[in-house]
Write the structure tokens for this entry.
Amino acid sequence: MSLMKCVSFTRGTLRSVYFTTRQLQVSGHHTCLRRSSTMSHTVPPILSVAPSRALVDEKFKVVVENLPPGSPVTLHSLHHSEDKDYWEAYGHYISDHRGTVSLAEDLSFGGTYTGKEAMGLLWSMRPVPGSRKGLRLRKMNICSPLLVNISVYSGHVVEGFREQAPLASSLTERWYMGPGVQRIEIKEKGVRGTLFIPPGPGPFPGMLDMWGGGGGLLEYRSALLASRGYASLALEYFAASELKSADIGLNYFETAFNIVKDHPQVIPDKVGLFGLSLGSIVTILLAVGSSVIKPRCCVCVSGNHIFPIGEALRGFNQLLHSNAHKVCVDENNHQIWRGMGLPIPDDPSLKVDVGRINCPVLLVNGQDDQNIATVEAAEDMAQIMRAAGKEHLLTRLEYPGTGHLIEPPYTPHFRATNFIKDGNEKAVLLWGGQTKPHSDAQEDSWNKILAFLQQHLYSRPTLKAKM
């Protein structure tokens, strides 16, 4: 039994791994590195991923060299999540006349993505077959990287990757928090959250970052914003399943905003608001209803302006319950909530008067959002602001084939996931979107969000974090 060597690069270090020919053999056309096979070659393949350490919104370049020309191979990614679930993606390639495959330059002919997709091994990730239903991949510990193992296999493989020996592998680190970013836990004046300060002398523009109705503290977007030059407070404004009893008013968010504004590393007159889903509704409410704070700009992802005037967050929950009869389900029994917001009410007391907004607002919405009627709400907002002479403050981004959960670039697409409603009732919510257009929208919208923040918050070029 002969020994054959596979070469991989891990964190910039050349590593040789030896496999026997028996270990490398698999059934049918998936046979690896036998002299009688199409992969017979004197020099083992080399797989490189550059950069091997990067922020999650940066592209990498994946190249396989030293393959026989015209060889079918599969590029595969594997991630073991903090929830102990495995996520994977893969693409089928044919090496060129030089024996090379480049994800940025070559077509994938099958797999979890097709076409020329440099980042397909990340954005098309999905739970491996047999996983629990309704999973969502989110990084909770942003002080450690998201580790993704990239491997190359002989033949066009579709299953059983973990039971087969790859020709070569490389481990890549994807970070939300860049070098030098400070992470500061905030528990003052009744406010809970985490403040992230960019590296360097400062001071920096600031952001108050608010997530949605799932509750809890999510830090990864704020960590990424700090890595891009913005002091960002990831705000926790109720714990999971507390919305029913969340008697939180504007003063909580105003206090949080002022914690950011008053920090010595923050430019006090350059603080913005960033919200997704319920956080986006709160963002609009603050921009209109607060007499205490004056945000410089607002980014609203997948939200609307439907909110009972003068109510705490509990009032929003009561509004949802009054429209619960409009909830429907799809063929998989996934709950569709968008109907609860339709038709957009004519009663002004049920809507935030966005005609009173006095700062630039960026709306980012998906046309296949199955959770909130965001596109219809955005059109109503535009009409109200137009009538008030404020339409010049509004920028709208709407993406076809895109759902509710518009995340930072290369985050996998989640069409339906588990959700805990008030009272610890569990459901699977349909968020919408199709994988390829949704992923394209995440990349495009993030670049436009950073450009929007640069325009309205920054007086010097955006910092480029280096890993």
